[in-house]
Amino acid sequence: MAGHPGQSSARRPLGFGVTAGLGDELLVPLAREVERLGYGSFWANDLGRPEADGLADLAIVHGAAPSLKLGVGVLPLDRRSPREIVDHLSRLGLPIDRLLLGVGAGGATDSLRVVRGGLLELRRLLPTVRLYAAALGPRMCQLGGELADGVLLNWTVPERVRWAREQIATGAATAGRTPESIKVWAYVRAAVGRGARERLDAEARRYVETRAYRRAFRAMNVPFDQVGVAGADLPGQLEGYRAALDGVAVRALPSGRDLSEFMTIARAAAGVADEEKAGA
């Protein structure tokens, strides 16, 4: 299954994602540029620590670019309880109607139990929020299909997305839900410039040091240089992902924390020449 019939991949939502903890000086101009370029959402990860607080970053983004939807991918439930998440959202004043709230097991060993309990409790506390479950393997995809509004994939390829949709449909069927009601998004790492592919490969290898990602990469059975997008023609490379997914969060992978590098990736993925100045 490659998305919804009759909906061209070009019209499916494109978001822009960053690592948490970039600070106001970078996030404010970046959010405004992302909004100007026509992205529909801005995503941040979260490490469950004050210095890498995805929700706090999204509050900055919302103040700078209020038309953007806000995605967090993902809040680790082994470090943030559902009640703590709700209280934090309240303190920050984040708009629930614009929020895509991603949650995952973090480092919990009993991941399915932790995520199931977290989804049920968050649904009780925040009945209108759109909940996304982070998933790699079949059982977590099925759990997302059973309980969540969407599933957020990571380090994947379009062929694996089609497999994930089958697992999500299985979970949806157990709850009497239609598979089409569960949106499937993914972080797709993007790098440009000198050493772009090498940065992607190095980042993938870092993830593979964990057992869950090692298992996921083995199941995909593809080399590192086929995961993510790098170099020239990012829109063309993203086409397969956009055809398979309901939404793509272009996860910027710059060489450092310089604003211009994030801007370059955002413009390249949107198909805009980097020399075009903001506001042109």
Shape from CA axes? globular
- H/E topology pattern: EHEHEHEHEHEHEHHEHEH
Provide the structure class: alpha/beta
Strand line-up of the largest beta sheet: 1-2-3-4-5-6-7-9
Strand segment tally: 9
Radius of gyration, taken over Cα atoms and rounded to an integer in Å: 18 Å
Major sheet characteristics: 8 strands, parallel, barrel
Low-confidence stretches: 1-7
Output mean pLDDT: 93
CATH architecture term:
Alpha-Beta Barrel
Distance between the termini: 39 Å
Strand content: 15-25%
Can you identify the CATH superfamily? Luciferase-like domain
Quaternary class: single chain
Quick structural summary:
With 280 residues, this protein is α/β, with parallel strands linked by helices. The protein has helices at 24-36, 54-64, 82-92, 111-125, 138-147, 158-174, 196-208, 211-220, 234-244, 259-270, and strands spanning 14-18, 41-44, 69-76, 99-104, 130-134, 150-154, 183-191, 229-230, 247-252.
Using brief descriptors, characterize the structure shown.
44% helix, TIM Barrel, 18% strand, alpha/beta, single chain, 9 strands, 280 residues, disordered N terminus, 8-stranded parallel beta barrel
